[in-house]
Batch of 2 targets.
Target 1
Amino acid sequence: MFSKSKTNEPDPRKQATPEAAKVSDTATYPAAKQEVAPAREGAAKIKPPVSTLSTDLHVKGNIKTTGDILVEGQVEGDIRAHLLTLGESATVKGEVIADDVVVNGRVIGRVRGLKVRLTSTARVEGDIVHKTIAIESGAHFEGSVQRQDDPLSTTGNRPSAAAAVPPQQQTAVRTS
């Protein structure tokens, strides 16, 4: 029924050459071929690894990326990403905007995403604007929920206070 095959053993008739090694590497690791090949418009891009902000990291300022972020530390500012995952120890004070948002930690501010998921350990104090949402039992949420077909668009957002004040009367205000 089963036979022992020697397909994994090298063929002694074939000589190991650098060219054969390149072919072997690109067959096993497709990324190796993409790195060697010159960049062409329309070519598939290699997805970068997830950026991680560890528990001992405290960021003051905005974060913007087209990639994925895993936050375990504290962020005082807005975060914009493709996929944003907030770990259980994470605290974000600011607006969170991503295609996919998974909240395991705490957010004090608005959450905007195509898909928003609040896990049982999530704590959100602010409004959620979404296309689809999932809230697990045990999640803590204080705010309003609004469904929009395009929650990532900047139109339809609440008007900023600066827009109502003429430029000559605007001043920088820092609150703690």
Target 2
Amino acid sequence: MRKIIEQHHQRISILGLALITFFFAFIALTFLPKRTIAPILPSNPQPVTHNSPNAIIFINDLQPNTIVLPEQIITGTAPGYYFFEGSFPVELRTAENEIFATVIAKTNEDWMTTQSVQFTVILPSSFDYIGTGSIRFIKNDPSDGEAPFNPEQDELIIPVFFETTNLAE
């Protein structure tokens, strides 16, 4: 009888440990950042371009599938009509395409032109998300969505890997 009671206690202990393990695994998988590895392209990068009949965007210092860090500065050129009051929005998105931060691309040049205008974007001082995602450069729409939106002309999406420190160092 005592042996049966000991076996019963062992089974309850194992079941309890399994439940505790599953609970902590659920918490970790649900609330901790998901990490994936994005390939790093070779040095000597070429500008990223987005060509359409009416728009050309050049990103000077950001390549697809590279690591981006907090406070990183991204520069490029976009047509003047991308800007309103000298700026346009830039969204940082997760792999699930959820926005976790929005920053502003700004210019000091005359943006009321159809010519290309230089801009600068400074990423946030910290990221709420770490892992594979994208940066979306969007034409500023002062009409709050009333103007027609053409994704081929009015946005540029670059896949990236968000990190908090430079892994290459």
